[in-house]
Amino acid sequence: MTTPTPVPPGVRFIAVRPPPAPTPLRSDVAAFVGPTHRGPVGEAVRVEGWRAYQAVFGGLDGASHTPYAVRGYFENGGTTAFVVRVAGGAPATATAGWTPAPPMWAWPVAGVVVAATSPGAWARGLEVEVGWRREGAAFAPEVDVVVRPRGAPAEALLGLPVERLPEAVAARSELVRLAWAGDDVAPDTDAYLGAADRLVDEPDVALIALPDLHAEPGLDVARIVTTLLGQAEALHDRLVLIDAPRDRGGRPWHADQLIADWLEAGLGRTADALDDVPWRAGAHYHPWLRVDDPLGGVHRPLRTIPPCGHVAGMISALDRRRGAHHTPANEPLLGVVDLEAEASPAEYAVLNEAGVDLVRCVPGLGYAAMGGRTLDPRPDRRWVAHRRLLHRLVRALRKVAEPLVFEGNGPALWFQFVRAVTSVLLEAWRSGALAGAAADEAFTVQCDLETNPPDEVERGRCVCLIGVAPAVPMEMIELRVALSRDGALEVLP
Asked: Are 333 and 369 in contact (CB under 8 A)?
């Protein structure tokens, strides 16, 4: 037996390995598409937390809702997100020239071009201060560069070697190579469609939010939404969170008829066109939220933003805590100060039936999402919980099936496939995601000669038929009560 070595009280630092990178099996990662303060344009950038977002995209920006939505996502339990910055055309990058004055005789070139690290108006007003020492710590010329952006902490890059100044600045700064700003160009429909195509290649993405979809009047909202829904349906592993416009002619979007009009006229979701667009791949949350805005000062301390970011964070946290099959409802939304509008009980009933998931103020709970329906009203396609359960199963089945690729297509492969798929479905049934008192009541798996006739084998495909009975979310509880003669309240069977 080894006796542990005594250690004195105090603070000790222990190096640990970072957690493994997320795999496509996860279903709690959201993607945000919209304009940001700065950052690369048209690229899906993975960020782990709000500070990581600020380092790349520059934090809150009064010109767009997307940064506030991302902040709400992390406030409500989201841990990982992909962000695609959209901008119209080719936004300019801030640049400026600088020529050192004597006695900086050791400067290797006559002048320096300072440029922003990413395009856009975020660099307007940014200051770059350059200091010079003929002999530094290594008895060689050194340069100090201090970058002062608007509304953010300054960067101090001290002791940079003159001969390797560009490389040293690039290695240590998130901001520099910048001076005068270029102008942002409003993102157009093609920018959003390009971002949608970019997200197809990201297997981790399970939720998609577009907080600034209604900010630009020239956007073809219906085309953007239906494109994202079509891609989500083809991949079977993600859900699109949709927001309604904030107002219409000065009226808040709280009345049931206004929402119904927008769903039909704005998105084209009519009873005759339910099969034209996979509406079950999208969920609509309403109304808009009022959140704290540090940029508004004492006169405008709150900002009204769409709910998609806060809802995505709630879904992400609930996914990790209880599973993707759990209905994302009855959970508080953190960071919400108020709602833009409150629906009446009558409006709530109509909107819920139309597939609009309302955010409401619930006594004892706070502001919470009180609905779990997709935009498809048909009973077999109605529930967000069922849709996300499918996403989780598809991701799990991809993981177990990938090692079987290029195996001989015969009874041995069929047996391996059935065993792997059954293990996944058993796990889902034991967690309560599937209905049935026994496993054979919850799911069926068939992969044999019947599902794989010779023509399928010749095509190089292995076909497996899977049937599942998902547990149906409970929206309503009815209690039959009666008042007895002695004044007691009784619950009837």
From this structure: yes
In this predicted model, what pLDDT tens digit does every residue of 333-357 receive, in sequence order?
999 999 988 878 878 888 888 888 9
How far is the first Cα of the chain from the last one, in angstroms, to the nearest whole number?
Answer: 64
- Label residue 82 by pLDDT band (50, 70, 90): very high
Q: For the residues of 254-287, what is the DSSP string, one character each? A: TSHHHHHHIIIIIT---GGGTTTTTGGGEEEEES
CB atoms within 10 A of CB 98: 11
- Alpha-carbon distance values, 227 to 66, 222, 376, 422 (Å): 20, 8, 16, 34
- What span, in angstroms and rounded, lies between the C-alpha atoms of 337 and 307? 12
Q: To 10 degrees, what angle do helices 411-430 and 384-401 make?
A: 140
20 pLDDT band, cuts 50/70/90, is: very low
Retrieve residue 66's tokens.
């997307």
Instruction: State the sign of the Cα–Cα–Cα–Cα dihedral 287, 291, 296, 298.
Output: positive
| Dihedral, CA of residue 287, residue 291, residue 296 and residue 297, to nearest 10 | 140
Element spanning 124, H or E: none
Torsion of CA 188, 123, 150, 293, to 10 degrees: 10
The predicted structure's pLDDT at residue 339? 92
- Separation between Cα atoms, residue 225 and residue 218, nearest integer Å: 14
String of DSSP letters for 381-430: G-BHHHHHHHHHHHHHHHHHHGGGTTS-SSHHHHHHHHHHHHHHHHHHHH
Helix (H, G, I), strand (E, B) or coil at 292: strand
Q: What is the spatial distance between Cα 458 and Cα 478, in angstroms, rounded to a whole number?
A: 55
- Check: CB of residue 34 under 8 Å from CB of residue 71: no
Q: Specify whether the CB–CB gap between 361 and 339 falls below 8 A.
A: yes
Topology classification of domain 29-88+186-378: Rossmann fold (3.40.50)
Residue 180 banded pLDDT, cuts 50, 70, 90: very low
Q: What are the extents of the domains in the chain? A: 29-88+186-378, 95-172, 405-468
Lowest mean pLDDT among 93-107, 200-214, 259-273, 286-300: 93-107
Note the pLDDT tens digit of each residue in 146-173.
888 877 788 888 888 776 677 777 777 8
Task: Tell how far CA 194 is from the center of its chain.
Answer: 17
Q: How far apart are CA 10 and CA 324, in angstroms?
A: 42
Spell out the alpha helix ranges (H) of 48-188.
50-57, 66-75, 165-172
Which two tokens mark 492? 């009837």
